[in-house]
Design brief:
Strand content: 5-15%
CATH class of the largest domain: Alpha Beta
CATH superfamily of the largest domain: Type I PLP-dependent aspartate aminotransferase-like (Major domain)
Structural class: alpha/beta
Number of domains: 2
CATH architecture of the largest domain: 3-Layer(aba) Sandwich
Length: about 375
């Protein structure tokens, strides 16, 4: 049973190439359980939300049914379910329960890692740009953050990161596939890189978008295909392919000794009663995951088709979002879409002319491209590129 943690730190809050050939999924091949689902897009008076890399189709019908059934337990504290959920996750990944640590989304796991392995006089190294949460948490505990620009292929510059490692380095952060670029750093390069690090450095590998990555020799999970290195901490989330961003459940898989160093900094009773009941259902719903991955692959290819037809240059995507160079200030494009009731990703320096677009439903993406074509320089852009 989980112990009381009322005296531990509270969660901090912070503000805000081409793809592989797509497997087209004819409507007749989609299971009836999914075609019968209500549209999960937006309220009639709300914006089109293409800004947070959510699964526009999720949760699946099976998981949605479990959520509805679980509402009757919303008045109960879920701590009695903690060990059961940890066990389900551990069984899913073929690891021991003591290798799993749950959090309020994988973002909390990043906060916990910062509290456990950083602090005054310690250093965290990351890519630029990447998901910013760990950077904010590192700064909040007084650590220095060193950011190393991505390579020209939008992979982590592992040699550049290694050159910045010193006696004060406590954590390295690798988001793979990377957010916001949706690009990969090759598995073989990561293994070589980790093998060169001092034994005092922990490496957080964020696999939030793991299921969306196309199978290849270039990529494999550090959970599904682990390496014998006790310093590696892998994070996953139920927020993306499972479509449970609003229920907030993420977790880390690492060596038991590393997990125990992190555990004191987790939020007490951070598991909510609804997700405690549906996490196992989501893990078991392999058909639903395959459905979402296939839909995303189709939507992603369609986005590239539309972008290429406008002479745009997206970065090859291995996630459920795309980043592309629009050769105009990103802030101006973001504001253009906002004025037309469409939210896209924020500005990610130093990629000042790149925008990040989360993949929405086909109808939402049609509206996106219609709005793109309203940009005063959209046609000039095509002419310029020809």
């Amino acid at each position: 049973m989980i112990k009381s943690r009322r005296d531990f730190l509270r969660s901090l809050s912070i503000g805000a190439a081409a793809t592989g050939a797509a497997l087209r999924l004819p409507l007749g091949k989609v299971s009836a359980a999914y075609t019968a689902e209500p549209a999960r897009t937006r309220q009639s008076d709300g914006p089109i939300r293409l800004d947070s890399n959510e699964n526009v189709y999720g949760p699946s019908a099976i998981v949605a049914k479990a959520i509805t059934a679980a509402t009757g337990k919303a008045n109960r504290y879920p701590f009695r379910q903690y060990d059961n959920v940890v066990g389900r996750i551990a069984n899913f990944h073929h690891v021991r329960p003591e290798q799993v640590l749950m959090g309020c989304g994988s973002t909390e796991i990043l906060r916990v890692a910062a509290c456990a392995f950083l602090g005054n006089g310690r250093q965290m190294i990351q890519a630029l740009p990447t998901f910013e949460a760990l950077e904010e948490y590192a700064k909040s505990v007084g650590s220095e953050v060193v950011s190393v620009h991505l390579t020209s292929k939008f992979a982590h510059d592992l040699d550049g990161m290694l050159a910045r490692v010193g006696p004060s380095t406590g954590l390295l952060y690798i988001c793979n596939p990377n957010n916001p670029t949706a690009s990969l750093t090759p598995r073989r390069d990561l293994e070589t890189f980790i093998g060169k690090l001092p034994l005092t450095v922990r490496v957080v590998i964020d696999e939030a978008y793991h299921q969306y990555a196309l199978p290849s020799a270039m990529y494999s999970s550090f959970i599904d295909h682990p390496i014998t290195d006790d310093r590696v901490i892998v994070t996953r989330t139920f927020s993306k392919v499972f479509g449970l961003a609003g229920l907030r459940l993420g977790y880390a898989v690492a060596h038991p000794a590393v997990i125990e160093k992190m555990r004191p900094f987790t939020t007490q009773d951070g598991l909510n009663a609804i997700v405690a009941e549906v996490a196992g259902v989501a893990l078991d719903d392999t058909a639903g995951v395959r459905e979402f991955v296939a839909r995303n692959r189709n939507d992603r290819q369609e986005f590239f088709n539309d972008a290429n037809g406008r002479m745009l240059k997206p970065i090859g995507s291995q996630a459920n979002f795309v980043m592309m160079n629009v050769e105009h200030p990103a802030t101006e494009v973001i504001e253009h879409f906002r004025k037309h009731n469409i939210l896209i990703g924020r500005h990610f320096p130093p990629l000042d002319t790149y925008i990040r677009v989360s993949l929405g439903s086909p109808e939402e993406m049609r509206v996106f491209w219609q709005t793109w074509d309203l940009l005063p320089w959209a046609k000039m852009f095509m002419h310029h590129e020809v």
